[in-house]
Amino acid sequence: MNNNQIANPKVEVPTGMALNDQDYLKNLLSCLKEMEKNYVIAMTEASNESLYHQFQDIFLNLANNQRRVYELAFKKGWYTLEKAESMKIDQKAQSLGVKFSDLEK
Fold first, then answer.
1. DSSP class of 19
2. CB-based contacts of 36-39 (< 8 A; 24+ apart in sequence)
3. Which stretches of the chain are assigned E, i.e. beta strand?
């Protein structure tokens, strides 16, 4: 692992043609993310408050489950993050600030 990565020790899984726990977890994570996107769209297009709140409740449940699955994958070392340098974060924030200012014009 390089110094720019944030990760836990990887839990080894069987390799080969058969799906393993890591495959199932990554697939579940992808499905939950896609479902979240779709429910956000459904919320923005809801025709009344009651329907909006039903979609919102489902979305929040999906978001909580997605977070739990992500945390499990990270705990098992199947998901790694990259450390961002402070300078890169500052540059990105400045760039987005300029774009936001341009939108306000």
1. -
2. 36/62, 36/63, 36/66
3. 5-6, 81-82
pTM above 0.90, yes or no: no
User: Token digits for 86?
Assistant: 């402070």
Q: Is 21 exposed, middle or buried (0-12, 13-18, 19+ CB in 10 A)?
A: middle
pLDDT by residue (tens digit) across 45-76? Answer: 999 999 999 999 999 999 999 999 999 999 99
Cα gap 39→37, rounded to integer Å: 6
CA–CA distance, 8 with 78 (Å, rounded to integer):
8
Per-domain boundaries in the chain? 18-81
- The Cα 69–Cα 50 span in angstroms is 29
